[in-house]
């Protein structure tokens, strides 16, 4: 019992320091399906066993990657796209919009499990793991005390959960934490939802704290489909001196108050922006969340004034999706959002653009399909400024070449947006 008390004390000390740290997380996402074309209709016990046994019938359907910054405020994880420098109040699923998302790995699970008096623990003894002795414990959190929230397109519910963790017997450092959702509502059509985190001890400024080195989330459905996220944390650092977290109502990093109050030329709705990418888009290295740049191919004249947006003006944006679809014919799905014009002299101006078309420059780009976000799976979290492009029948290692061109149309600025 005294060992568990000391373990919980060390974890509580670590989580109390987490609001002073920020990490970048890269999430590799994969969707697979059991079966060979036929409908999978087996009991959950057989489905879980087949996947655990690495069945050869597990077919890869799609793969993509996310890159985000994560921090902890009031024991809750907050997210932004990597390098964005500001955090809003939207949830992770609202930021990412589609596909499996999971939070809690960075610090929230530790606080919920080890700092709650309602968590029930049981010691399971010593056991070998990866060539070393470890102390193993099991735990359970009942529904009334749980903050484990599951949701899909049809239902959302807080569920009880249980799991296990291992501890170094000499240092009493947490090594691994495994979590399983219990009593999953049948209407969700999930057989199993699980999380696993490997922890490492870091020392900064004469302080020790626990951070996850890697985390895995796995969801197995009753139809034999499996979604798996593998998250790696990197670039963890402490906020010191001038470092700070900025929220959506604050000026962007590096922008002075005078610059924030500047009102550059208003961009009216209905202007045509022909944009060329300045870099290749490689699914093997890039991720949703990564910044991208483009240049304006033609000078745009502002109606009713002598002002123009010159040819060659730089645009900055974000990748919102970069997914390889391996089902049927195969395709690369690429979604992008242009966020700002970068004026000569360093001034930046927000811009809202709606994708209209891909501009063919090669045989492959002439086949590109343009879809609206509402019709491409973004659902109720619709953002009309996200442009969705599908490159059909491409090879697994296909890259969108630098210079790829697309046509966009300006939208009216949102109410409250600086003009």
Report what the structure shows.
The chain is mostly beta strands. The chain has 2 domains: about 1-245, outer membrane lipoprotein receptor (LolB), chain A, CATH 2.50.20; about 255-410, Lipocalin. Helices cover about 10% and strands about 45% of the residues. The chain has 5 helices and 25 strands. The strands form 4 sheets. The chain has a 19-stranded antiparallel beta sheet that branches. Strands 4-14 form a two-stranded parallel ribbon. Strands 7-8 form a two-stranded antiparallel sheet. β5 (about 120-130) and β6 (about 130-140) form a beta hairpin. The longest helix has 16 residues, at about 1-15. The radius of gyration is 24 Å and the shape is globular. The model is unreliable at about 250-265 and about 375-380 (pLDDT under 50).
Helix content: under 10%
Secondary structure tally, helices: 5
Low-pLDDT runs of 5+ residues are: 251-264, 374-380
Largest sheet: 19 strands, antiparallel
- CATH architecture label name of the largest domain: Clam
Structural domains: how many: 2
CATH topology-level fold name of the largest domain: outer membrane lipoprotein receptor (LolB), chain A
Rounded to the nearest angstrom, the radius of gyration is 24 Å
Portion in strands: 35-45%
Question: Could you give the distance between the termini?
Answer: 63 Å
Order of helices and strands: HEHEEEHHEEEEEEEEEEHEEEEEEEEEEE
Helix/strand structural class? mainly beta
Overall body shape: globular
Estimate the mean pLDDT confidence.
84
Strand segment tally:
25
**What top-tier CATH class of the largest domain fits best?**
Mainly Beta
């Amino acid at each position: 019992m005294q060992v568990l008390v000391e373990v919980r004390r060390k974890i509580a000390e670590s989580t109390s320091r987490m609001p002073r740290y920020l990490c970048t997380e890269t999430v590799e996402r994969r969707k697979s399906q059991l079966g060979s074309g036929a409908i999978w209709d087996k009991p959950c016990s057989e489905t879980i066993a087949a996947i655990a046994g690495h069945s050869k019938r597990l077919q890869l359907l799609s793969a993509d990657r996310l890159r985000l910054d994560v921090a902890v405020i009031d024991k809750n994880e907050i997210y932004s796209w990597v390098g964005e420098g500001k955090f809003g109040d939207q949830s992770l699923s609202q930021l990412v919009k589609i596909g499996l998302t999971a939070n809690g790995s960075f610090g929230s699970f530790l606080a919920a499990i080890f700092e709650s008096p309602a968590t029930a623990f049981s010691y399971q003894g010593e056991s070998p793991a990866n060539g070393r002795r470890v102390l193993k414990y099991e735990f359970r959190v009942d529904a009334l005390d749980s903050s484990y929230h599951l949701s899909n397109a049809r239902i959302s519910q807080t569920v009880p959960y249980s799991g296990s963790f291992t501890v170094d017997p000499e240092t009493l450092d947490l090594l691994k934490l495994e979590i399983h959702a219990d009593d999953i509502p049948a209407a969700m059509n999930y057989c199993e939802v699980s999380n696993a985190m490997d922890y490492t001890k870091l020392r900064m400024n004469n302080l020790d704290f626990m951070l996850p080195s890697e985390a895995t989330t796995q969801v197995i459905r009753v139809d034999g489909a499996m979604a798996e996220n593998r998250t790696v944390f990197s670039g963890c650092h402490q906020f010191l001196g001038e470092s700070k977290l900025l929220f959506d109502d604050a000026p962007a990093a590096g922008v002075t108050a005078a610059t924030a109050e500047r009102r550059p030329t208003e961009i009216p709705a209905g202007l045509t922006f022909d944009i060329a990418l300045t870099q290749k888009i490689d699914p093997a290295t890039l991720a949703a969340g990564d910044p991208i740049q483009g240049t304006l191919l033609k000078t745009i004249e502002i109606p009713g004034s002598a002002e123009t947006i010159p040819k060659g003006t730089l645009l900055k944006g974000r990748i919102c999706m970069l997914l390889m679809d391996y089902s049927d014919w195969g395709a690369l799905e690429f979604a992008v959002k242009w966020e700002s014009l970068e004026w000569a002299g360093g001034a930046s101006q927000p811009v809202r653009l709606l994708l209209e078309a891909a501009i063919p420059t090669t045989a492959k780009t002439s086949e590109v399909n343009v879809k609206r976000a509402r019709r491409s799976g973004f659902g109720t979290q619709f953002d009309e400024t996200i442009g969705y492009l599908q490159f059909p029948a491409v090879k697994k290692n296909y890259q969108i070449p630098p210079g790829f061109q697309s046509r966009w149309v300006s939208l009216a600025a949102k109410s409250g947006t600086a003009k």
